[in-house]
Amino acid sequence: MSDTAEQSAEQAADEARPERLTEEERLLRRRARRISAYHSAERTLARLGLLAPLRERLALFDEAHTLYDLDEPGDLYGNGIVEALEEKVAKLLGKEAAAFFPTGTMAQQVALRCWAGRTGNPTVALHALAHPEVHERDAFREVSGLRPVRVTSEPRQPTADEIRGFEEPFGALMLELPLRDAGFVLPTWEELTEVVEAARERDAVVHFDGARLWETTVHFGRPLAEIADLADSVYVSFYKSFQAFGGAALAGPRALVEEAKTWRHRYGGAVFQQFPTALSALAGLEHELPRLPEYVTHARVVAAALREGFAQAGVPWARVHPEVPHTFDFQVWLPYGVDELSEAAIRQSEETGTALFVQPWDAKGPGLSMTEVYVRAAALEWTAADVKAAAADFVARLREVGNQEVGGQEVGR
């Protein structure tokens, strides 16, 4: 038995003895097994940079000379290569200017507090599932003096009628495109333009939380600049779509961007040197951006094959959401508990070298769980038949797990 296999067997044994581990320890062991199995798998739908070894990540610099003149001095507090990146992003999005930020959390707070100063209204209308509401510990309210109000909590994009009929004034409407926690969903182009028009009728500015905006061109059937033109300002991420080291950008009118740079400094975002992150962002724009439409198209093949594979395997109920993915990420819902799904996914990776489900499973109700599926370059090697076969194998392992004890609980169905 290999060292990796032996370690995984020991971890699995520990998980089966709850008296030896706390719940936190058990979940940490599971996470370690899941990532180890993913690293050793020969096939997966996405090779994610954030999980790659440092040596592999640093290989980016082997081609750095093709991205930027390496005889230029490094950046200091946002000049040099950072300015070059900002200019490139502004041009791609069709905006007057752009500012680089270390995080999207900071970029959006700055953008919306700048707009609040201009409109005189700190109220920001957004979705209840928007990133700032779910993942940022009330930063809008606690840090930036903004007042978020929820237009809807339904797992879909807001409608124009909801914007027009909202019961109180707001200075800005923030739209997350795509809305990740609802399943990476997007409105239609007609719906989006109607929502923007409805906000304008209320004298509100429109800001796009476009962390993954790069991925939306196939669904909307429009170029990036035309999509971004609907909004007064746009935030984009560099690591979510491009797997850069980090970083974000805020694009919009030049006067707004210049003010945003002042607030960037006040928030602690004027970092001394950021050339490694800027280089990784330039690499993403150069190499990944042109390939994103191909990933979106193939995600639709993968999603359809998963649906068919589960149906053929006799799973009583399964859902791929959206049925036709709007980007290259989507959700899979299955009528099983987190423990059994997690164990089946890990065993499939460990025993077959095929990692079909890499992301963790989340409980969504009694006997109902959801995971996210990411489709990237690695998935292009998979045919629909490959996906169906992997789904059938996963279901078989799920049934094997069914009558066994996982995490100290009987998980048989």
Description:
- This protein is of the alpha/beta class and 413 residues long.
- It is built from 17 helices and 15 strands.
- It has helices at residues 3-15, 23-40, 54-58, 81-93, 104-119, 131-135, 139-142, 160-164, 189-201, 217-220, 224-228, 239-242, 254-266, 275-288, 292-312, 338-352, 384-402, and strands at residues 43-44, 97-101, 123-126, 147-150, 172-176, 205-210, 233-237, 248-252, 319-321, 329-334, 354-355, 362-365, 368-374, 405-406, 409-410.
- The strands form four sheets. The chain has a seven-stranded mixed beta sheet, with helices on both faces.
- The longest helix is centred in the C-terminal third of the chain and has 21 residues, at 292-312.
- Residues 406-413 have low confidence and may be disordered.
Keywords:
single chain; 15% strand; 7-stranded mixed beta sheet; disordered C terminus; 413 residues; 45% helix; 4-stranded antiparallel beta sheet; globular; alpha/beta; 17 helices
